[in-house]
Amino acid sequence: MSQDNNKYVPPKIWTQDKESGGKFANINSPTAGARFNKELPVGNAPLQLYSLNTPNGVKVNMLLEELAEIGVKGAEYDAYKVDISEGEQFGSGFVTINPNSKIPALVDHSNRNDGEPIAIFESGAILMYLAEKFGKFIPLSASKARADCLSWVMWQMGSAPFLGGGFGHFYAYAPEPLEYPINRYTMEAKRQLDVLNIHLKDNKYMCGNDETDYNIADMLIWSWYGQLVLGKLYDAAEFLQVDDYTHVKRWAEAIAERPAIKRAVELPLQSMG
């Protein structure tokens, strides 16, 4: 790294020559893979969830609790806490089911008598897998309803990194506040909120106005943007003027009142042992 009057000039070749700083500096590394040996606990339920109650983590909680709310059989699960601040996501057992070492990850043992367990990682993939497995909270046939659902699912997966890794990181977790990245990602976070606000002006849920239109798109998006406008993320509600997004607030408040969602955001997680 070269510096002139405190101005950063990128070197020709980047090397990790010092700690990155910020909240997660103790676990940040440019390499992947397991860092220590640790098997995952496995309970008796058909589904085994390894996660944390972060915005990404609660997505799976939400769907599993909604399935429980309507009495779906076979969707019973055990949930284990993966403490990402302590690096538990780099244990060998967890890396085996998620080579990207991010929460959440899920293993389906429902076929344990007939074949190998099925491991799924990435929150969007997990919700799509479970919704299609049980035929709930996703339109199954090729139709406008399915296209709408999948479009908003992919919107969330592509947009949320700008909110979490972009705005959230530089506003709440970086070692010092920096004007350019905070302005850059604040602008994008507010643009995304406006996308949702315009859409939800004429839609009770992300994909329509009937109760049957409530689906995994709502769950995925609410976990980030719903919690954001309800003041649950980054202590940033005033900074982002979230009350201006009246239609997002209405939608977020309605979903927050669902019994399954109340359970999901406070879900007790078992120790990894």
UniProtKB/TrEMBL annotation:
Residues 142-273 form the GST C-terminal domain. Residues 45-138 form the GST N-terminal domain. SUPFAM superfamilies: GST C-terminal domain-like (SSF47616), Thioredoxin-like (SSF52833). It holds the Pfam family GST_C. It comes from the Bacteria. Residues 1-22 are annotated as: Disordered. PANTHER family: DISULFIDE-BOND OXIDOREDUCTASE YGHU (PTHR44051:SF22), GLUTATHIONE S-TRANSFERASE-RELATED (PTHR44051). NCBIfam families: PRK11752.1 (NF008731). Belongs to the GST superfamily. This is GST-like protein.
